[in-house]
Amino acid sequence: MSELPADRVGPNRSAAELPLTTGALARRLGVAPTTLRSWERRYGIGPAVRAEGRHRRWTPRDVALLEEMCRLTSSGVPPAEAAHTAREAAGAQTERPARALGRSRAAGPLPLGDVRQECRGLARAAVRLDAPAVERQLADAVDRYGIVVSWQEVMVPTLHAVGRKWASSGDRYVEVEHLLSWQVSTALRRNTPAPGRQTDAPPVVLACVPGEQHTLPIEALNAALGELALPTRMFGAAVPAEALTAAVRRLGPAAVVLWAQSRSTASPPLARHLADLRWGVKGARRQPSVVLAGPGWSGTSARGAVRPATLTDAVDLLSGSYGASVT
How far apart are CA 91 and CA 82, in angstroms? Predict the structure, then answer.
């Protein structure tokens, strides 16, 4: 089905003012036609007119109301509450958000209710494959709470929720997980400050162990260290051991963070090898701290290496090694 044909446009009506069919409106909003019918049945948000044969025709006023409904549900507002708020907004001819968190960008965990609402909103937008809505919500979370809290309290719970839905539905939602992961990665990179002034302080090297493709957690750590203006060098996924060794020798880093998502990729011999590297003139040789990050290192240990439990712990550990020397 499509919009009304041009020969039915009155002399004083533009195409933008024409009523839309349910199919056309669903495509415009990025939702399924069954969702629109469900909202009409459950919450009374229906078309103002019906054409011959009981076909629905949605007016610009209907469209504005449903756009507000979609915006609210994308931000985590329950559908019934979103419908009520959208109807009030349409009646008052104004737009207003369902609720304002009114919080400053602060450290510490988010209130539990806010976390659940933001995660629900992100998950719903991701399931709809609504990339712009996901992008907006991630940007808003980082702006309000900073990288560390946004990662631990918003991004990770939502990624886990979407992953569970995918795992329990026979691969039906794999595209949702891919879209959400990409948007999270994009948000982290956009909020990683560009390198500032040249500093003599040695950097932190961040890399996935050979065979490890999961990079989001060290991308979050890279962004969090960037917020503190600490120098980093990100090498990303599956860095070969020889290349990582060469990079460490060339850079002389303060620390090397090795991420392993699974035990099958974690390599204690590599961690020990990097911890034993030394450079500098005789009598003043240095060696890096080795940080084992990720669940893959659980139950293993390596001489000279430490295992922070959370992103907060890792940031505290690495920033503490710089003291006040880097601003």
Answer: 14
Quickly list DSSP for 256-304.
EEEE-SSTTT--HHHHHHHHT--BSSTTS-B--EEEEESGGGTT---TT
% of the chain surpassing 90 pLDDT: 24
Model pLDDT for residues 112-171, shown as the tens digit of each residue: 445 567 788 888 888 888 999 999 999 988 888 889 989 988 999 888 888 776 656 655
Helices (H), the chain: 22-29, 33-43, 60-74, 79-92, 112-127, 131-150, 156-167, 174-190, 216-227, 241-251, 268-275, 311-320
Spatial separation of the C-alpha atoms in residues 219 and 231, rounded to whole Å? 14
User: Global pTM?
Assistant: 0.65
Compute the residue count for the chain: 327
In this structure, the number of other CB atoms found within 10 A of the CB of residue 18 comes to 20
Q: What are the Cα distances from residue 240, in Å, to 216, 294, 302, 304?
A: 19, 18, 19, 21
CA within 13 Å, CB half, 175: 7
Give the separation between CA 126 and CA 118, rounded to whole angstroms.
12
Judge whether 73 and 124 are in contact, CB under 8 Å.
Answer: yes
